[in-house]
Amino acid sequence: MPQDGARLSTLIGAYMQGPEPQALSAQVSQSIKSKRERFLKLQVDAEIQATIKKLRMARQDPVVLVVDDDPFTTKLISASLRKTHQVHQAHDGVDGFKTYAHLAPDIIFLDISMPSISGFDFLSKIFQLDPDAYVVIISATQTTLSEEKARRAGAKGFISKPFSKADLYRYIDQVQHVYA
């Protein structure tokens, strides 16, 4: 089963690392200009969705994925949770997406303000990959508008930076009831 996640991660990585726009024909170059556009054009089929579900169901231990370009935040969350959970880190949207495909984590703590591929871009794709994904936004710039946009996109919650360990565990407790 873990090899399925690794295969998905490799496929996503190969697509994202595809030929640079300069090496493509002018017509193709116009259709895929940036890392963000390439990411948003990723196609997810039912087989991939089924594999993600199988990966999660086959696992015993809870897994957390933190997607944030700020190393301090990812280390802080990891230190807060590592005694009770496997915690994995990704520092951009593509790496987060590949890691999600590889591990099918129980919960994602996601930053909204990241370069190249924003948290909102990530949200738009993660629910194509896994309609059951449980995503909680962590952001230093919480506004009613961004919180509402995140919830409409499928996020289950919103935590403002700075945050407490209790904030993290509140959502972890909720997700354990969802997948039980």
Give an overview of the whole structure.
- Mean pLDDT is 84; it is low at 19-32.
- 53% of the residues lie in helices and 13% in strands.
- It has 180 residues and is of the alpha/beta class.
- β4 (135-139), α8 (144-152) and β5 form a beta-alpha-beta unit.
- Strands 2-1-3-4-5 form a 5-stranded parallel sheet, with helices on both faces.
- α1 (2-16) packs across α4 (46-58).
- It has a single domain, classed as Response regulator (Rossmann fold, 3-Layer(aba) Sandwich), CATH 3.40.50.2300.
- The relative contact order is 0.14.
Question: Which features characterize this protein?
Answer:
about 180 residues, alpha/beta, Rossmann fold, 9 helices
| Unreliable sequence segments | 19-32
Q: Strands across the major sheet, in which order?
A: 2-1-3-4-5
Q: Strand portion, in percent?
A: 5-15%
**Major beta-sheet overview:** 5 strands, parallel
Tally the structural domains: 1
Q: What is the CATH third-level topology name?
A: Rossmann fold
CATH superfamily: Response regulator
Overall average pLDDT = 84
The ordered string of helix (H) and strand (E) elements is HHHHEHEHEHEHEH
Helix content: 40-55%
Global structural class: alpha/beta
Annotation, overall tally of beta strands: 5
Rg value: 16 Å
Question: What is the helix tally?
Answer: 9
Set down the secondary structure blueprint:
Elements (H helix, E strand, L loop, with lengths): L1 H15 L9 H6 L3 H6 L5 H13 L4 E5 L3 H11 L4 E5 L2 H11 L3 E5 L7 H11 L5 E5 L4 H9 L4 E4 L4 H14 L2
Parallel strand pairs: 1-2, 1-3, 3-4, 4-5
Helix pairs in contact: 1-4, 1-6, 6-7
